[in-house]
Structures are given as structure tokens and as C-alpha cells.
């Protein structure tokens, strides 16, 4: 059994990006600039955005942060997005999710210029991804593909089960795992109304768990020799930690790991790769690689 080390892989990719940025600067180009829009004070969102800014520093990017309180109006947010769309120094930006309930998420995402949508959430990027055109790929699925590729995990023709159908992970992951140029696997997507999820999972050569239920995937659901990718990042209370919580994956790691050929842990698996792929997308935006 091999533990997939997302932290080390991400560190290596960030070094590769930093080297490319140095070369760009030497060639007289400007530093890539990622901007983040953060609304409210959700602990998870604060941590993600802080880590994104730190990753920018590691890669040699410029970063900027636009903060709003929970009672921000949709118009104020749209104003900020229009400014970022029109700022020639900003190569890409993200609006950290989730948004307060009074804000129409779709309206916000659609207001982002798709050429700066480094999260890959805009319908133009989602559509281009679905038909295999160059675009910003959503960072978590892209990070998972990168891990599978860097660990030389054979995918073509294998059976892949994706647990979860979210717009951010499950849907794009299943599309990419199906596509010839990426996973080239036979994909089954399971969700809250699927019947006999355990039996579906037992068929999987590659099992990708993204449902946000701590420890949901148990040993009896995993085929011996399977590759298991855990996308879960649920905060569970843990009084023994200074923060008062720990991150829990969707997989019962202790009992599932011995069965697997490869498994990604939580933390230190998919999480670090996600931010790293956002950096890749920002670099691509700065180089106008897609648009
Ligand atoms: N919230 C959880 N994951 C993400 C992400 O990848 N991007 C943004 N913008 N918000 C998130």
C-alpha cells in the first residue's frame, strides 16, 4: 500500500511554478496576480484564503484580498467583480464559497470574466471542460488527476466510482475521469439517492469519495487493491487540538488503507493539491494560455 503524499507533490509543483515565474520575470513579464474575494468570517473560508495567499507568496505571485462583511449586498459584490474584471494587473480571481444565503451564487459566478475565472466555476469554463476544450479546470478535480498521473496510476479502461455530485468536485471529477484525454475510465456517480452504494463501491478500481461524511467509506466497501482518493475535509470537534477541531476525511483510513494499492490521506492528500492547482490556473491566466 502506498500513501499518496499530496503535501510533497504540491510542494514540488509550487517549486516548478516558482521557477517558471522567475523565468517570466527575467523575460520582462509581470508577476502573475491572484485576487481573492472573501465574505464574512467563516473559519474554513478564512483558512482556505489565507493558504491561497501563502501559496501565492511561495510561487512568486502577487496577491490581493477584498473583504466584505456578511451583510454585503449583491450590488456591492458585483461592483467589486467588475473592478477585478477590468483591472489589467489582476490575472485571475476567486470568490470564496460558500456565500451568505441572500446572495445569488449563480449571478456572482456568471459576473466573473471567464478569462479570469481561475476556479473554473463559470458556465463557459464548465461547458468547455465538458466537451474537452482548453479551459480553467476546477482545482480539486485537476489536483486529483495530477496525483493519479504523478503516481503513474493506470486509469484507462478501469472502473471508477465517484461518491458525490457537487458542482465543485463530483460532477467535474466524473466528467474528467470519463474523458479519453484524462481518466479514460468507466465512471459511476453515486449520490444521496443511489441504491446500494456499498455494492457500487466494491466494483471500483478507483474510488473517489467527495460527500463530506466523515468515515463514510468503510473497509467492506473497498475492493482489495483499489485506489482510494479521499476528498472529504469535514471539521470534527477534537478537544485535544489547540484549534479544538481536526479535519476528517470521508474514508475510514485506519481500516481501509491496508486494503488499498494507493490511498490519499486527510489531511495531506487532495487538500494541498487543490490550492496548488489554483496557482497553476493563475499562471495559465497570466500567460493567456487558454484565452
Ligand atoms: N469553497 C470550497 N472550495 C472552494 C474552491 O475551490 N473555490 C472557492 N472559490 N470556494 C471554495
Structure, briefly:
With 291 residues, the protein is of the alpha/beta class. It contains ten helices and eleven strands. Guanine (GUN) binds at residues 94-97, 119, 139, 168.
Number of helical segments with 4 or more residues: 10
Q: For the terminal residues, how far apart are their CA atoms?
A: 41 Å
Q: Could you give the order of the helices and strands?
A: EHEHEHEHHHEHEHEEEEHEH
Shape assignment: globular
Helix coverage percent of residues? 25-40%
Largest pleated sheet: 6 strands, parallel
**Strand percentage:** 15-25%
Mean pLDDT: 98
Radius of gyration from the alpha-carbon trace, in angstroms? 19 Å
Are there runs of 5+ residues with pLDDT below 50, and where?
none
Bound molecules: guanine
Give the tally of β-strands.
11
Structural class: alpha/beta
User: Strands of the largest sheet, in order across it?
Assistant: 1-11-8-7-5-6
Structure, described:
With 291 residues, this protein is of the alpha/beta class. 39% of the residues lie in helices and 16% in strands. The chain contains 10 helices and 11 strands. The chain has helices at residues 6-26, 43-59, 74-86, 105-111, 123-130, 139-150, 170-178, 197-202, 253-256, 270-286, and strands spanning 2-3, 33-39, 62-68, 92-95, 159-163, 186-190, 206-209, 227-230, 234-237, 245-248, 262-263. The strands form 3 sheets. The protein has a 6-stranded parallel β-sheet with strand order 1-11-8-7-5-6. The protein has a 3-stranded parallel β-sheet with strand order 3-2-4, with helices on both faces. The N and C termini lie far apart (41 Å). The model has no long low-confidence stretch (mean pLDDT 98). Bound molecules: guanine. Guanine binds at residues 94-97, 119, 139, 168.
Amino acid at each position: 500500500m502506498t500513501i499518496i503524499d499530496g503535501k510533497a507533490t504540491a510542494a514540488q509543483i509550487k517549486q516548478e511554478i516558482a521557477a517558471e515565474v522567475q523565468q517570466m520575470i527575467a523575460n520582462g513579464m509581470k508577476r502573475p496576480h491572484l485576487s481573492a474575494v472573501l465574505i464574512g468570517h467563516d473559519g474554513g473560508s478564512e483558512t482556505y484564503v489565507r493558504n491561497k495567499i501563502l501559496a501565492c507568496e511561495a510561487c512568486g505571485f502577487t496577491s490581493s484580498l477584498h473583504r466584505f462583511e456578511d451583510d454585503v449586498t449583491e450590488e456591492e459584490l458585483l461592483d467589486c467583480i467588475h473592478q477585478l474584471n477590468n483591472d489589467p494587473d489582476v490575472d485571475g480571481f476567486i470568490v470564496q464559497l460558500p456565500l451568505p444565503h441572500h446572495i445569488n451564487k449563480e449571478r456572482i459566478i456568471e459576473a466573473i470574466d471567464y478569462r479570469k475565472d481561475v476556479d473554473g466555476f463559470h458556465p463557459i469554463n464548465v461547458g468547455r471542460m465538458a466537451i474537452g476544450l482548453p479551459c480553467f479546470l476546477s482545482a480539486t478535480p485537476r489536483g486529483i488527476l495530477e496525483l493519479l498521473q504523478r503516481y503513474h496510476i493506470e486509469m484507462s479502461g478501469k472502473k471508477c466510482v465517484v461518491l458525490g455530485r457537487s458542482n465543485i468536485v463530483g460532477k467535474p471529477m466524473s466528467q474528467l475521469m470519463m474523458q479519453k484525454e484524462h481518466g479514460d475510465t468507466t465512471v459511476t456517480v453515486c449520490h444521496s439517492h443511489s441504491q446500494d452504494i456499498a455494492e457500487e463501491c466494491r466494483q471500483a478500481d478507483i474510488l473517489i469519495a467527495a460527500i463530506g461524511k466523515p468515515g463514510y467509506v468503510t473497509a467492506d466497501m473497498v475492493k482489495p487493491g483499489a485506489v482510494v482518493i479521499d476528498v472529504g475535509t469535514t471539521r470534527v470537534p477534537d478537544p485535544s487540538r489547540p484549534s479544538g477541531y481536526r479535519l476528517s476525511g470521508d474514508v475510514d483510513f485506519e481500516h481501509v488503507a491496508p486494503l488499498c494499492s494507493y490511498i490519499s490521506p486527510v489531511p495531506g492528500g487532495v487538500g494541498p493539491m487543490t490550492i496548488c492547482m489554483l496557482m497553476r490556473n493563475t499562471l495559465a491566466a497570466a500567460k493567456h494560455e487558454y484565452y
